[in-house]
Amino acid sequence: MFPLRKFTHNEWKVNNHGKRIISEQQQELADRVISESDRLVDEIRLKTHQNHGESNHRLGERISDIKFLRDELERHKAEACAEEEALKTYRMRISKALEVFREKFLPICRKCLELREQRIQTDIVRDEVERKLQQELRVIQESLESLDKAHSDTTEQIRKIRAAMYQVDKDIFLKASAQKIDEKCLEIKPSQLNLKIQKLNPEKDTFNTTMEAWQKITLDTIQRTSQEINKARSLRSFMDILLRQLAEDIFTATEATNVAFGQRIKEVRATKDRLEDVHRETSRQVNEIERNLGKLEHELATKEGFLAACTTRLSERKKRPATELCLDIPQETLLRELANLNVSCKQLNQMITDTKTTQRYLLNTQMQQEQEINIKMNSLKVDEVDCMSLRQGLEFKSF
């Protein structure tokens, strides 16, 4: 066993001095590490709070943006709903107008035209009433075409409003979901105990839209909705004008027809009254002719008695004997009487013939007058009783 080496006092002092220097160096290093650690901790804590605060601020801004857009969407939705209800009301008004035109105005107008075909003979005339009825029919048919188109346009606009509202509802739902998620994220605090670190790979995350595209989608939805709302309002204004104009047109047309009916009825009645006056005078003349014919026939019968007496006398005077058979004054008187009686009978026969001819003409005229009166009575029945009674069902109300 070898004896242990002993160090000198100087070596011991050097050794101790060297270890002390090393210890001091390590202490200085430790102080620097601690100081750097404190600085780093403070810096990271500050940066972490700043980043967290920035995230909270951005989430708050995002929530505010979503709320603003949601409010705009909700406002446009409310306006669109109001316009849809207003369009439904206008469509109902148009349907009511269509029903009135189809179920009342058109059948009555056509029925009047059909009834007036029942006029007979010379009263089948294209008069002012028929022209007004034809004009009224054209107004009704044009009104029906306008109302049908307006009904289709209103239905189509309601469909477009609903389509726009569907997009608005869809966007509102998405915004509400996103807002709920962001509000939930904003409520998450670092001090919560139930939080766990999620395994994420941001580099592989994909996004459906950019910020600009996100805003554009909503703004486009709002713009489309605004356009449809403005179209609906313009359409409603047009409907107001259309319904008012159609009501005025049909009122003007029917009133003109009614006035024409009144004038025609007045004209026909006046003509009928004049015909009845003429008929009464003709009837009086027929009676006078009959009395005159009876008087003539009686007078002729009387003259035939005188004629018989005269001819008998002449025949008896032919029996005068010898020289008594002469042309004396009585013979001449009887011959003149016979000649006058023959002339008178001939004149009476001719007058009887002329009177009978006149009687036939008068009776024929009387029959024609009665036919004309019946024609006028039929026309009055068609226009005044049938048509005007039917047209009393035309009531004018605002559509």
Description:
The protein has about 400 residues and is mostly helical. The protein is built from four helices and no strands. It starts with 8 loop residues before the first helix and ends in an 8-residue tail after the last helix.
What attributes does this structure have?
4 helices; 399 residues; 84% helix; mainly alpha
Distance between the termini: 134 Å
Low-confidence stretches: none
Counting DSSP H or I runs of 4 or more residues, the number of helices is: 4
Broad structural category: mainly alpha
Beta strand %: under 5%
Mean pLDDT: 85
Q: Write down the secondary-structure element order.
A: HHHH
Sheet with the most strands? none
Summarize the structure.
By secondary structure, the protein is mostly helical. The protein contains 4 helices and no strands.
Helices and strands, with pairings:
Blueprint lengths: L8 H107 L12 H60 L23 H107 L11 H63 L8
